[in-house]
Every structure is written in C-alpha cells, then in structure tokens.
C-alpha cells in the first residue's frame, strides 16, 4: 500500500501506469504471435516488411497515436541476409532536424542514415541484448533518440523466439512527453510530488519540477510498485 501521507491517489496513479503499459504489452504479444505464426512463410526482407507493416501500421495511423515508432528488428539469419533488418515504421513526427515534419507513418530507411553505423553491432545494444539474455520484455530509456525522433523516448522490446532461439525483437517507441500526457493527471492527484522511475531508478515522468527526466533516484522505502511493470512511483519529498 501507498504511503498514507500521499493519500490513496498514489495507488490510482500506479494502476494508471500499469494499465498503460499493459496496453503496450498486449500489442507486443499479439504482434509476436503473428510473426511467429508466419515465420515459415517469410522468404525475404520484402515479405517480412509486408507482414510486419500490416501488424503495426494501424496503431501508428490512429488519431493521436500513443506510439511514435513500432516494428520488428530481425536477426540476420532470420531476414535472410548478413546484417540486421529493420522492419520498422515511424508515426507522424513533429519537425526535427533528421526528418522534418511528417503527417503519416513512414518506413525507417537505414541506408539514408549515414550516422547509423553503430547499429551494425546491434546485439550489444540494450533494447536487443537484454531481451535476448532474459527472455523477457524490456524497457530501454528514457533516452534521446538521435536516429529518428530527436527527442526523449522510451523503447519497449520483447523477444521473438523460435526453437529456443531469438529470431529478433518486436518493439515500440513512445515519446516521454506522450507518457507525461497519459500519466501526469493521475500522478498530480496523488497528493504530493512523485517521480515514475524505471528498474534502474531513472526518472521517466515527474510531477516535481526539481526532478527532471533522466535523473537517477534511489528507490525510497515509500516507493509504490506499478503492478505488472518494473516501475516504481517514488515520492520526491
């Protein structure tokens, strides 16, 4: 139970966090199942792109979409090549120095990104490495996405495994400012300043102006778990 000095509103805020990320987890689970079901039918990158696009584009085409990116990053052996393959789409983007402003979903084109060479060693990156080693869904961030959004995001990735081997990860990107829109109203009703932190203690959303996104906090004994997630709501005073 929550610290009574903050009132029962902190429990409601924790439930709101849980509900939002359950929605994301449910989407990933459905996409993962569909990708595995069609794994034997996928003969190359183009066919894989068609299959994944049909799964993720409806979420990116919603009015006021929650997601700013979604797709599947295939292991080289699954995509039929020698390098990773991104079946990844970006939702409508605000004006940024990489892509400008877009009004609808666009497919990520790594060939057009001269600064994306670091992705060649993608197995070492947190969003791939942790799901591969833990066999569990993982949240990376918050961090500044220099590849596409040029803003703070969180990335949620889930391993897609066949015959006890990971063939890639399915995932989504969400703007931190979008998370704030979803979560701040419930957090503000808790009765005191709060920060939502990930499993490393890094702040994702905060109602305390002195505690900014990206700060690392020690989880206090009064921290409240958000059910079904690795997140905590931490009182900041």
From TrEMBL:
Record-given protein name: Cache domain-containing protein
Lineage, opening ranks: Bacteria, Bacillati, Actinomycetota, Actinomycetes, Micrococcales
Domain of life, source organism: Bacteria
One Pfam family in the UniProt entry: MCP-like_PDC_1
Species for this entry: Leifsonia sp. NPDC080035
């Amino acid at each position: 139970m929550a610290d009574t000095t903050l009132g029962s509103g902190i429990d409601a805020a924790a439930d709101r966090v849980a509900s939002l990320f359950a929605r994301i987890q449910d989407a990933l689970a459905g996409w993962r199942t569909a990708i595995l079901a069609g794994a034997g039918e996928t003969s190359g990158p183009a066919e894989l792109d068609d299959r994944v696009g049909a799964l993720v584009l409806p979420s990116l085409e919603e009015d006021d979409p929650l997601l700013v990116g979604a797709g599947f990053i295939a292991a080289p052996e699954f995509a039929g090549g020698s390098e990773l393959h991104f079946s990844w789409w970006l939702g409508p983007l605000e004006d940024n120095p990489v892509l400008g402003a877009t009004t609808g979903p666009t497919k990520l084109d790594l060939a057009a990104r001269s600064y994306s060479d670091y992705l060649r060693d993608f197995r070492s990156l947190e969003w791939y490495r942790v799901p591969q080693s833990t066999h569990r869904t993982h949240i990376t961030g918050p961090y500044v996405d220099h590849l596409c959004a040029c803003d703070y995001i969180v990335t949620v990735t889930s391993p897609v495994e066949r015959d006890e081997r990971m063939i890639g990860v399915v995932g989504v990107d969400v703007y931190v400012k979008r998370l704030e829109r979803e979560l701040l109203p419930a957090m503000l009703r808790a009765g005191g300043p709060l920060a939502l932190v990930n499993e490393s203690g890094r702040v994702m959303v905060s109602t305390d102006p002195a505690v900014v996104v990206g700060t690392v906090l020690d989880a206090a004994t009064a921290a409240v778990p958000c059910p079904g997630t690795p997140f905590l709501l931490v009182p900041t005073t």
